[in-house]
Amino acid sequence: MTNDHPQSPPRPGSEPPAPPRTGSEPSTLTGSPFESDTFTSATFVTVGRGSYLALAAVWLLSRAGMLLLLSRDDLGIGGVAREVALYRHWYGQFAEGTFPPGDVTWQYPPGAGLVIMSPSVLPWLTYFQAFVALTLLADAVVTAALARADSARLTHGAWIWACGLPLLLHLPLARYDVQTTALAVLALLALGARSPAAHRLGGALAGIGAMVKVWPALALIGTPRGRTTREAWTAAAVTALALLATLALFFSESLGFLRQQGDRGIQIESLGGTALALARASGAWSGGVEFRYGAFEYVGPYVSSLGHLALLLTVAAFGWLLLWRVRAHRWTPATPLDAAFAAVLLFTVTSRVISPQYMIWLIGLAAVCLTSRRTVMRPVALLLLPAAALSSLAYPVLYLDVVAGTPTGLAVMVLRNALLLAAALLAARRLWTSTVTPPAERAD
Predict the structure, then answer these.
(1) How many CA atoms does the CB half-sphere of 249 hold within 13 Å?
(2) What residue spans carry the Polar residues bias annotation (predicted)?
(3) Quick one: which H or E segment has residue 151?
(4) What is d(CA 383, CA 363) in angstroms, rounded to the nearest whole number?
(5) Strands, E assignment, 16-75
(6) Residue 374 — φ and ψ, nearest 5°?
């Protein structure tokens, strides 16, 4: 988080002001969104009050377009809003005091129930209307928080979110991942402050997020060693345990999701699924596609082995992150943001499941990274934009092609997953070289 206004004192937790330029230094574009060794001549938005108005206008227009698409819900395979109907079904079970018993489609931590029950705070609306309204509210909060994080030099962080989310068409409005991403984004922004209370707040938000959809716990992977880590991690653990105990007290079957999650196979949009699709197209694999656990998965020879390999790669990714944390010796204000982004990317590409809504998480984390000029993730964030657009082609636009494994569907998935894999590897490399590799050995 920065405050570069020459007449304003820096906010607590902000980066120190950049030293004045000398006459021998090359000039750069003021407020460039890609002020880095890779991007030095791009411009994104004029700095000043007009930027806030432009951001608000783009947000309103793009979200109106997303609402229009959702109201029609006939793009491609259609039926994007059916997920909200499933949420409504689960809401009825929560009202009876139980998490969905024996429901193979319920694969979420118990905190997700709070999000699914949240439309009840707007009783004058239908469940669907209330859910979409609260999703838009969470979206607006993320946009405002990202803009405020760089209030004196509004640049690409808020814009990546405002413009990147509509690349997923209307899907974000019919999933609860926007709310989950809001918890992670707010947690990371709170961790950037110097106040111990802010660190505890960031940890608490990450703990709640972990109980909603697990992955926000990774927001804490890059907290600076020492007091900040102790404060944030303790707050996260206490909050998560308190929330779990409370839900277990009032609802039965609170941990039933573990059975369903453990039985998942290889979803067709995952990297493993793309490998099987290529093998099937070449005639080297004889398996097929089946609708299981609420998604299309591959079934047939070697699927179980590939699933175990995916789990092994996830464990290896976690081990690499632990090694990075032990070896890292240079921390900047952007390091916690960059580490969270890299961690979620690594866990995404090694997962047996890459649902299209996972892109919401990645766009949000990319946006929060880009609120800091010290981030090393700018080129990684750029890779996510075409990956998000391709995700929309995969679902819902060309989903029948993806399921059938036609050349068009296969090409879309190969390109999308290649971009995600490249983004994950590049993020890991840039995180390592910026914090571990000695400066004299760095190639970039």
Answers:
(1) 6
(2) 24-35
(3) none
(4) 10
(5) none
(6) -90, 0
Nearest to 401 by CA among 269, 266, 299: 269
Going 400 to 403 to 404 to 406, the CA torsion angle's sign is: positive
Q: Does 16 map to a domain?
A: no
Q: Give CA–CA dist 34/125, Å, rounded.
A: 43
pLDDT in tens, 199-224: 999 999 999 999 999 999 999 999 99
Tally of domains in the chain: 1
The residue with tokens 């109201």 is 71
What is the 3-state composition of the chain as percent helix, strand, coil, each rounded to the nearest 5?
65, 5, 35
CA separation for the pair 280, 195 (Å, rounded): 55
Residue 173: its H or E element? none
The β-bridge partners of 292 are: 295
CA distance 433 to 44: 27
Q: Is this prediction's pTM over 0.85?
A: yes
Q: What DSSP line would sit under 409-437, residue for residue? A: HHHHHHHHHHHHHHHHHHHHHHHHHHHTS
| Rounded distance between C-alpha atoms, residue 94 and residue 115, angstroms | 11
Does the residue 6 lie in any domain? no
Residue 289 has what DSSP assignment? Answer: E
CA neighbor of 1 nearest in space, from 367, 263, 409, 442: 367
> CA 368 to CA 337: how far, in whole Å?
7
Residue 211 near residue 240, CB atoms below 8 Å: yes
How many Å apart are CA 388 and CA 333, to the nearest integer? 27
Tokens of residue 114, six digits: 């709070």
18 found inside a domain? no
Q: Phi and psi of 12, rounded to 5°? A: -55, 135
Does residue 60 lie within any of the structural domains?
yes
Residue 320's nearest CA partner among 227, 221, 237, 252 is 221
The H or E element spanning position 148 is helix 127-149
Weakest mean pLDDT among 91-105, 137-151, 240-254, 380-394: 91-105
Q: In terms of DSSP bridges, do strands 295-299 and 266-267 run parallel, antiparallel, or are they unpaired?
A: antiparallel
* Domain of residue 248, residue span: 49-439
- pLDDT tens for 71-103 read 999 999 999 999 999 999 999 988 888 888 777
The CA-CA-CA angle for residues 299, 305, 311, to 5°, reads 105
